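Worked Example 4.2. Consider the chain below.
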Amino acid sequence: MLSTIIIAIAIVLITVLNITSKKSFADREKNSPFECGFDPKSTARLPFSIHFFLIAIIFLIFDVEITLLFPLIISIKFNRIIIYFSTTIIFVIVLLVGLIHE
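Applying the procedure from the previous section yields the following structure tokens:
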């Protein structure tokens, strides 16, 4: 019996506090989602900068390249120096050809 009364009081308190604590005014800016500086109320077909797209792709390529170069640094202990340098030079040449092609 006592636990039922405590649960009922808790439910009433939660309901009253939930109703009284909400802000009553609705603002257009606060209700709309933030879309990285773009106005979400305008059309979704805005012109996209190809220059920005190419810079982002080049960044991703070189970001992945750095993760591929780390094992080469570790493998210098286990390989002969000629094999290490030839592998590294071939890898860098392939990346440079890809950069020039882009």
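The CA atoms of residues 50 and 90 lie 30 Å apart. The chain is about 70% helix and 0% strand. Compare this with Example 4.1 before moving on.
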